[in-house]
């Protein structure tokens, strides 16, 4: 699974989550906007964390060196 | 004052505080009480004190408040009495009729008088009972003395009679000086009987001896059980004493000494038959008194029970009335004494509700005139009011703890709902611990209704109040735990096989040169091959430090963008052009560029040294980069960015003060100012002058801007470095976790002994809960909070508003507790 595919998966999950919130807690346009903002923020945070860890492992400069006992 | 921004940002809940308006209500006196009561039920107006200069005694309704205070005192008295008996007031029942204040006052007065009388009578009866009980003891013990004296006298007499022959009964007693003297002989011996406390008995004896020069005879007998002293009401150990004396002076001395020692005296007759009669009489009276006392207690118990059923309701009524009169005192009374004028802040959306409440009050009080509802225009800053629900209120409190938002500025609470648990989770990352935290908080959430009505201790109260915060923290921790691949510090190959394999099938080089990356990158999170290797820490440290910088730069950029939205909302184009833009340029040309370099280095796998690149960008920007070049044209771009950063500093500092001065001069130079509106607030007329022409001190503005610029420029470096605490705490957490796992659990497992294993498991659980789940949670909570309060909020938040605190009966409960 490449970088782009997983990014697309995050995007799709975010869209599905916002649709779900719109369906089950629809409380007027201002509240909906708040919920949307929260979902977008959460998606962006989670994606950033995943992307950072993934990118750092794509072309590693150091490799695991096992301990003697193992 | 800002008006709603057009178009670009549609209104979002919780982003800005509710629009407020200053109301003026003119209420006729007869409906004032009801009107304030209905407004208290609504809880949406914060009244201004229009009588601030008056002392509490000069206010209109001071007498009413005193009455309420009296009633509250009586209710407190009842509560004391009830708790002495062990009753607790029953919960409020809605079925009882609500009495008026006057009726309640009379009723409370009657009840208090009755209760006081019952108490007084009870005390009196109890005292008589105790005295009689003591008297009975005296009768018994002293009777024993005389009986034993008599019997020994008889014995002596018989002996003597056998020796000598018929003499009277009393003679041998007289001739033997050491034996007991018969008190009925004509040597005028008197005696006093009574009880003296045991700890004073020695001193009592000594002083009697000294005072009468040894001419008394004292006999004491201890009483086995402690006796209730009639005067003090406590149980005291006492001795029964009989003291024989001769003469009037000795008698007076002895009486005084008895008084001094608190020895109670009781009359005693020597006659045998009378003694037994007295004893039966006293016993009879004792049992009578006992029944009377019991009946009294039952009566009192019933009275207190009846009070207890209505207590909560009465309490609530008195508190409500007191609050209503306090509020009425804040209204100013019109000259004609026919109506009251009220001023207060209320949210705009509550207009209809308030008008309805006023109308209902007019109808219910049969008043002829309706209340007048007016909106005033003023330049004062309104209070800040956010409509939160049980989920968002905890986050809003976290933000408010640092400073309440200024009226209608952007509320960081919106983003805090997500970023705060997220940053916590970055520092906490372990999905095993996250699951434990989630289970603990789900317990609170499931039993929400029951726990919210109970009274919990301080710490439990705080934990319960923050249950939704902790739930989000736990959910994000599970996510970051999966990314860091730590389950109680153990990694798992959950998503795909590890990317690292041995260089050759025998794995000879595994401990010297290491593995190589042969498969695709591990798709979700840190590769499980890293755990326990020698190069784990260099890799993870590099990863986590860079992650902290990237997350920090992102959050700080969000803060600056929020300041742009504020500038748009308040139509402050100066702030947009001369604060927002140079700030963005400065932060991003330095630290945004660093973030881009980090990403490029990861994507290309270059061996460039980023420290070197950043430092020499400043020290010698024109030098050739050599092997530190990450992309072509890097040198030119670095020089451009450096120049942009240098230009943005005077851009932030200089233009704004001068432009503000020009603006002020333009306003000042106008020959006439607009007429003030007809409907001005009563209070603002007094201080109109001070608000109308604000002083403009150029030097002050310039210094303020200088401080702001220096703070931002230096803060850019220090705040970015401050985000490295995300790395530091996450490292600490994972190290602690792996120490507990390896050195406790695995060690205990290695012994192959069931007892050691159980002890090991217990120690592991205690250490995990105590250190990791409690201490680390608090620590990460604190640091995430600091990152929000300082590094995020100082980019845009002013936080110098005041909170909306309406007059509401629902809030009375919190006040009293």
Tell me what the structure shows.
The complex is a heterodimer of chains A (70) and B (817). Chain A has helices at 3-24, 29-58. The mean pLDDT of chain A is 91. Chain A has 70 residues and is an all-alpha fold. In chain A, helix 1 (3-24) runs antiparallel to helix 2. In chain B, strands 1, 2, 9, 10 and 11 form a 5-stranded antiparallel beta sheet that branches. Chain B has a 4-stranded antiparallel beta sheet with strand order 4-7-3-8, sandwiched between helices. A two-stranded antiparallel ribbon of chain B has the order 5-6. In chain B, a hairpin with a 6-residue loop joins strand 5 (227-228) and strand 6. Chain B is flat, with a radius of gyration of 44 Å. Residues 1-7, 171-181 and 684-692 of chain B have low confidence and may be disordered. Classes of the chains: A mainly alpha (70), B alpha+beta (817).
- Count of beta strands of chain A: 0
Shape of chain A: elongated
Given the structure, what is the number of helices of chain A? 2
Topology order of chain A in helix (H) and strand (E) letters = HH
**What would the principal axes of the Cα set say about the shape of chain B?**
flat
| Total tally of structural domains of chain A | 1
Give the CA-CA distance, first to last residue of chain A. Answer: 30 Å
Q: What proportion strand of chain B?
A: 5-15%
Which residues of chain A form runs of ≥5 with pLDDT under 50? none
Largest sheet composition of chain A: none
Helix content class of chain A: over 70%
Helix count from the secondary structure assignment of chain B? 24
Question: What is the arithmetic mean of pLDDT of chain A?
Answer: 91
| Fraction of helical residues of chain B | 55-70%
Signal peptide (chain A): 1-17
GO molecular function (chain A): proton-transporting ATPase activity, rotational mechanism
Pfam families (chain A): ATP_synt_H (PF05493)
Organism (chain A): Sesamum indicum
């Amino acid at each position: 699974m490449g970088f782009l595919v997983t990014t697309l998966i995050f995007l799709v999950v975010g869209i599905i989550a916002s649709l779900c919130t719109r369906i089950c807690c629809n409380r007027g346009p201002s509240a909906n906007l708040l919920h949307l903002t929260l979902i977008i923020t959460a998606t962006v945070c989670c994606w950033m964390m995943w992307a950072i860890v993934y990118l750092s492992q794509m072309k590693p400069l150091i490799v695991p060196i096992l301990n003697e006992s193992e | 004052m800002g008006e709603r921004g057009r178009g670009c940002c549609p209104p979002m809940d919780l982003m800005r505080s509710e629009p407020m308006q200053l109301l003026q209500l003119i209420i006729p006196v007869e409906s004032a009480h009801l009107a304030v009561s209905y407004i208290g039920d609504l809880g949406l107006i914060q009244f201004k004190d229009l009588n601030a200069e008056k002392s509490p005694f000069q206010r209109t309704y001071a007498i009413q408040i005193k009455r309420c205070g009296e009633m509250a005192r009586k209710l407190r008295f009842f509560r004391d009495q009830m708790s002495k008996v062990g009753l607790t007031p029953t919960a409020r029942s809605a079925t009882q009729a609500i009495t008026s204040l006057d009726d309640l006052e009379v009723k409370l007065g009657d009840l208090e008088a009755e209760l006081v009388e019952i108490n007084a009578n009870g005390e009196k009866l109890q005292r008589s009972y105790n005295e009689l009980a003591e008297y009975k003891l005296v009768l018994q013990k002293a009777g024993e003395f005389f009986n034993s004296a008599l019997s020994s006298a008889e014995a002596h007499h018989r002996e003597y009679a056998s020796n000598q022959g018929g003499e009277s009964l009393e003679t041998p007693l007289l001739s033997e000086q050491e034996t007991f003297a018969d008190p009925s002989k004509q040597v005028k011996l008197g005696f006093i009987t009574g009880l003296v406390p045991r700890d004073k008995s020695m001193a009592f004896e000594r002083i009697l001896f000294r005072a009468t020069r040894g001419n008394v005879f004292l006999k004491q007998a201890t009483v086995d059980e402690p006796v209730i002293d009639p005067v003090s009401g406590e149980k005291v150990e006492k001795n029964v004493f009989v003291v024989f004396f001769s003469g009037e002076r000795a008698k007076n001395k002895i009486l005084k000494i008895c008084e001094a020692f608190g020895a109670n005296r009781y009359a005693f007759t020597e006659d045998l038959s009378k003694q037994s009669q007295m004893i039966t009489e006293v016993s009879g009276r004792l049992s009578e008194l006992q029944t009377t006392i019991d009946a009294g207690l039952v009566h009192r118990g019933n009275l207190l029970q009846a009070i207890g059923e209505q207590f909560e309701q009465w309490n609530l009524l008195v508190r409500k009335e007191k609050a209503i009169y306090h509020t009425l005192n804040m209204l100013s009374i019109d000259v004609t004494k026919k109506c009251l004028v009220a001023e207060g802040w209320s949210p705009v959306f509550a207009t209809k509700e308030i008008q309805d409440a006023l109308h209902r009050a007019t109808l219910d009080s049969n008043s002829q005139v309706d209340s007048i509802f007016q909106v005033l225009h003023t330049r004062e800053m309104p209070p800040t009011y956010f409509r939160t629900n049980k989920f968002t209120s905890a986050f809003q409190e976290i933000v408010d703890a640092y400073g309440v938002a200024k009226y209608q500025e952007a509320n960081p609470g919106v983003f805090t709902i997500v970023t705060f648990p997220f940053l916590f989770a970055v520092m906490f990352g372990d999905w095993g611990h996250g699951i434990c935290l989630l289970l603990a908080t789900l317990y609170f959430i499931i039993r929400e209704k029951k726990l919210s009505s109970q009274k919990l201790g301080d710490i439990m109260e705080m934990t319960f109040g923050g249950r939704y915060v902790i739930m989000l923290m736990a959910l994000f921790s599970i996510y970051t735990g999966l990314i860091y691949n730590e389950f109680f510090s153990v990694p798992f190959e959950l998503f795909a096989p590890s990317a690292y394999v041995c260089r050759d099938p025998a794995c000879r080089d595994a401990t010297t040169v290491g593995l190589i990356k042969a498969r695709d990158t591990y798709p979700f999170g840190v590769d499980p091959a890293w755990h326990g290797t020698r190069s784990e820490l260099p890799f993870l440290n590099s990863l986590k430090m860079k992650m902290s910088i990237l997350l920090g730069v992102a959050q700080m950029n969000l803060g600056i963008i929020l300041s742009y939205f504020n500038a748009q909302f308040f139509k402050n184009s100066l702030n947009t052009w001369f604060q927002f833009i140079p700030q963005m340029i400065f932060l991003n040309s330095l630290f945004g560029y660093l973030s881009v370099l980090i990403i490029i280095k990861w994507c290309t796998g270059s061996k460039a040294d980023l420290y070197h690149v950043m430092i020499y960008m400043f020290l010698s920007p024109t030098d050739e980069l050599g092997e530190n070049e990450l992309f072509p044209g890097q040198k030119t771009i670095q020089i451009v960015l450096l120049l942009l950063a240098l230009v943005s500093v005077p851009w932030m500092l200089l233009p704004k003060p001068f432009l503000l001065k020009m603006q002020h001069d333009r306003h000042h130079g106008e020959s006439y100012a607009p007429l003030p509106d007809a409907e001005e607030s009563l209070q603002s007329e007094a201080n109109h002058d001070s608000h109308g022409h604000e002083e403009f001190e150029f030097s002050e503005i310039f210094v303020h801007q200088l401080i702001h610029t220096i703070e931002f420029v230096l803060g850019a470096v220090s705040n970015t470095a401050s985000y490295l605490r995300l790395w530091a705490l996450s490292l600490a957490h994972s190290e602690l976790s792996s120490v507990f796992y390896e050195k406790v659990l695995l060690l205990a497992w290695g012994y192959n002994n069931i007892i050691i294993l159980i002890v090991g498991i217990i120690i592991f659980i205690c250490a995990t809960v105590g250190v990791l789940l409690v201490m680390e949670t608090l620590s990460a909570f604190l640091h995430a909070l600091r990152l929000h309060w300082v590094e995020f909020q100082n980019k845009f938040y002013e936080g110098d508003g005041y909170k909306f605190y309406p007059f509401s009966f629902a809030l009375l409960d919190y006040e009293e507790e």
